[in-house]
Amino acid sequence: MGDILFLGHRVPYPPNRGDKIRGYHVLRYLSERARVHLVAFADDARDLSGAGGLSAITADPTIVWRSGSRVRSAAEAIVRGEPMSLSAFRNPSVKRAVDKVLAEHPIDTIYVFSSQMAQYLPSNPRQRVIMDFVDMDAAKFEAYAEGSRGPMRWVLQREARLLLRHDRGIAETAHASLFVSAAEAAMFADRTGLTDVHAVENGIDTGMFDPAASFTPADLPAPAIVFTGQMDYRPNIEAVCWFAETILPLIRRRHPDARFAIVGRAPTDAVRALATRPGVIVTGEVPDVRGWLAAASVVVAPLKLARGVQNKVLEAMAMARPVVTSHAAAEGIDHAGTIRTGETAAQIAGGSGGGARRPDRRGTHGGGRARAGAAAL
């Protein structure tokens, strides 16, 4: 077997957010079977040193800082008639790095992580191409457009239309197209008419996310409701704002001491402002999310827009916490009824408030406690 070239839109290390977790474990799996060369972007200054953490599983990793003006990228996309998602990730240094790897090493497989990176494929690749779309991003932009008005609605509709056309073209030439869930794969196959589309679902490290593992519990008074995630990501921002402004007040009418902790890096100004509301805590980045999950009476994921499989939900389940989500956030997870789902503020408040009544900090292995907790809501 020849070498593998892994193209990533974000360096998959450290594995501390959804796409990086998936990328890291795919990369580790591939490295056990072949020599892997990594070319990836970094968009966090700390990740520029990510190559060091990947040295054991990659050969000569190349990490390139993703820079450039969003306005300029948007203008270029309009002129070129292409999705903005592509122009935002166009970088001559990455192109040179890819060409160098292909010229100097016996690459027989190119693993493309996220469709923005497909622009770096050779025009007629002789290598096997595996396209990991992860989620169907065109559908995400369609959903964004539905909730927008004026010029932004047109921009988002355009992005959805052009991105679907681009992704279909890439999938037609790839040897296989991967998605994070059967639902995402089926949607893409239905929209494109293609058949070589497969689901490779996310998982989590159950040795790490184990209530019996060693970690420092957060000092969070019960009853505690916890949300975890990257807090500059639009669906997460919308979810916590909705919960803090609309759902939490309903819960606090019955449970005045209830606290809502928003746990995650890079909170935007809108998220930080929620800390001024009664019962809301905004932590920013924490060294270990497990302590906050362990301290939760209930973990919530009230995302109105969610694609694929939510790692935050899997982590909470592995930590044996009761989980309450929107229908969208539970889609793609075969939870057999262990997650309480709702769509309205009242439904989610009812489930979350039930968890707040029953703060149970006992640590047990596996999903048994998660099932019991969800059933108790």
Question: Could you explain how this protein is built, in words?
Answer:
With 377 residues, the chain is α/β, with parallel strands linked by helices. Helix content is 41%, strand content 18%. It is built from 15 helices and 13 strands. It has helices at residues 18-31, 50-53, 70-80, 84-87, 92-104, 137-146, 150-173, 182-192, 234-254, 269-273, 290-294, 311-318, 327-330, 345-357, 368-376; strands at 3-8, 36-42, 59-65, 107-113, 128-134, 176-179, 197-199, 224-228, 259-263, 280-284, 298-301, 323-326, 340-342. Strands 3-2-1-4-5-6-7 form a 7-stranded parallel sheet, with helices on both faces. Strand 2, helix 2 (50-53) and strand 3 (59-65) form a beta-alpha-beta unit. Helix 6 runs antiparallel to helix 7 and helix 9 (234-254) packs across helix 14 (345-357). The longest helix has 24 residues, at 150-173. The radius of gyration is 21 Å and the shape is globular. The model is unreliable at 357-377 (pLDDT under 50).
Main β-sheet description: 7 strands, parallel
**What is the number of helices?**
15
Quick one: how many beta strands? 13
Helical residue percent band:
40-55%
> Beta-sheet strand percentage?
15-25%
Distance between the termini: 52 Å
Strand order of the largest sheet: 3-2-1-4-5-6-7
What low-confidence regions span 5 or more consecutive residues with pLDDT below 50? 357-377
N-to-C SSE string, H for helix and E for strand: EHEHEHHHEEHHEHEEHEHEHEHEHEHH
Which overall shape is indicated by the principal axes computed on the Cα atoms?
A: globular
Taking all residues together, what is the mean pLDDT?
Answer: 90
